[in-house]
Amino acid sequence: MAKVELKKLWKKYGKVEAVKGIDLSIEDREFVAFLGPSGCGKTSTMRMIAGLEKITEGEIYIGDRLVNELDPGTRNIAMAFESYALYPPMTVFDNIAFPLRAMKFPENEIKDRVQRLAEILELTDVMTKYPKGLSGGHQQRVSLARALVRDADVYL
Q1: For residue 26, which of 46, 9, 2 has the smallest C-alpha distance?
Q2: CB of 2 within 8 A of CB of 62?
């Protein structure tokens, strides 16, 4: 994992200031939770770190690299989305394996990594099911497994 540093980070949506000048340093292997009421900028901040949202002002560093202008795919960030963002036509196994297949991992390593996370997150009994047939709790764990299955510099 890598250090994440936010310097005077701002996000405006029109005249609405969603994120107001955040200065934050998260050390390598440090765990941080963003807490607050709806609309206070938690999701916007994570989406800016991931590169899914353009920043209005400020700087984002991952490790010692300024990433403001890097697209999401080059930031090496894994994110579990609030809405789960699962692929409906794919089984649970295939949803979890998706990032590894996109990175051209060997199938035997994909199987091992997916199975290990399925056991840890208690998903082994739903691996052949599709997202629409899962409870919200199962969907959330599948989304988390898909984020954790890869070796990312930052997990959101």
Answers
A1: 2
A2: yes
Query: What is d(CA 93, CA 118) in angstroms, rounded to the nearest whole number?
Result: 9
Quick check: 144 pLDDT over 90?
yes
Cα of first residue to Cα of last residue in the chain, in angstroms, is 11
The Cα 156–Cα 152 span in angstroms is 10
β-bridge mates for residue 17, sequence order: 12
* Three-class DSSP category at 98: helix
pTM value is 0.80
Contact assessment for residue 53 and residue 75, using Cβ atoms and an 8 Å cutoff: no
Q: What are 60-95's pLDDT values in tens digits?
A: 999 999 999 999 989 989 888 777 889 999 999 999
